[in-house]
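Note to self: keep these together.
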Amino acid sequence: MLHQVSQRRNVPLITFETDPSWMARYAPGMESPLHQFRLVSSWEDELTSSEWDDYRCGLAFVDQAPWEARVITIERFRFTADYVILHDSLYYPVHGLMGKSVRDLVGPTDVGVRTYDDMFTSYKEFFPQEPWPLPDGPPTLLGSNVHDCNIEVDPAALSPPRWARRPILAYHAAAGRVGQSLRKTGRSAR
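Structure:
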């Protein structure tokens, strides 16, 4: 989706990736003068580069491995990006990496409460439409130190149709790990 927006709006996009096989799969069909791909061997080395000292961007979409590297990325761009989007944001306050869990997420009818004041002056969590592909959502965080994040988004316009969600999860690289975690806790992905 970001690639399409970049092409249609004529705005630059940089994709950073640590997995060479992922790069080999996607970069050949998507790389363009507007969309640059970079293979990263060390998130710390990349993000401490002076190249990013004065870099301004409209949006930083953060969804990388390992989980802890996402915090480094957010710290690097939280004041130079208009908006930061963090995928799977629930992990961070629950594990004490950023944000604070005020009340635990129970499920779609009680999403709990988290704060992210330690990183952003404005933020909002977004949850997928029901039925959730995983028992805990997962939420995606929109944060900014520049703009107000209290915006409404039509989730139906952004989510895959319900019939497509299970296959996405089934073939996702994390599906095996999710299944293992769910078996250990006795929870179900349904």
